[in-house]
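Methods, example record. To illustrate the input and output format used throughout this study, we show the complete record for HPt domain-containing protein. The sequence lines were provided to the predictor; the line carrying structure tokens was produced by it.
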Amino acid sequence: MDISNLDRLQVLNEQVMHELLGDDESEINNFRQQFLQQAKSSLQKIASFYREQQFKQIKDEAHYLKTSAKAIGAERCAYYLQQLEDASLALDKAQCKNHIQSLSNEIKGVFRACSTQK
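The corresponding predicted structure is encoded as:
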């Protein structure tokens, strides 16, 4: 996916969770809260791996979180996680840093979107 597609991606695509779980708002909110806890933990791990230049671990953690991001409809997070995977495979420290910063901002955006859903 190239950067021109980023504009079409949503911070939180509501439709994804409704297709997965129906209209059970309690269950949807539960999944979102689990994602946010996981995202916070994963972002801390990714930052630590980055400082230690452990690119394989960055890739693995990004891939792990990407699956959850897609499941809750956090499309922009999933995009940056894929970019982070690619940059870590290329051992591109500068790009990893940029994508980690973008990912952090996107996770904050998902948190805000989830907070306004209640």
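Annotations derived from this record:
The mean pLDDT is 92.
The domain at 9-117 is CATH 1.20.120.160 (Four Helix Bundle (Hemerythrin (Met), subunit A)).
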